[in-house]
Design brief:
Largest sheet: none
Order of helices and strands: HHHHHH
Number of strands: 0
CATH topology: AhpD-like
Number of helices: 6
CATH superfamily: AhpD-like
Radius of gyration: 14 Å
CATH architecture: Up-down Bundle
CATH class: Mainly Alpha
Structural class: mainly alpha
Strand content: under 5%
Helix content: over 70%
Length: 118
């Protein structure tokens, strides 16, 4: 079974903190890039994170899946909306999308949903 999503997020946050401490300008750039990419514009914050989680599944990035699943819930996404985004990712990637959808992604949805009453 996939690792716990909260563990994955802690690992990412710890790694990012260490990287930023060692390479402040590059860490600041990466943080700024992320913030710029997810700022609401023509797409609202929820939609941005639904797209990002689907892309995380397509790219087989457990860190992206955990981060954007949590952020989608924070932005008001429902389980059903997240599951549809995951299903779209499966359709676009075939077997690898199925594998990440039924492991890392489903684990992230199930782990974060109760915190948001979903």
């Amino acid at each position: 079974m996939a690792r716990k999503s909260k563990e994955i997020l802690r690992e990412l946050e710890s790694g990012f903190e260490a990287y930023t401490k060692a390479y402040p300008k590059r860490g600041q750039f990466m943080s700024s890039l992320h913030d710029t990419c997810v700022v609401p514009g023509p797409l609202d914050k929820k939609t941005v994170h639904l797209i990002a989680v689907a892309l995380g599944i397509c790219r087989m990035c457990e860190y992206c899946i955990a981060t954007h699943t949590k952020e989608a819930f924070e932005a008001g996404a429902t389980r059903e909306e997240l599951v549809q985004a995951g299903f779209i990712a499966m359709g676009m990637t075939g077997g690898p999308g199925v594998a990440y959808n039924v492991t890392y992604f489903l684990n992230a949805v199930n782990e974060f949903a109760p915190e948001y009453g979903k």
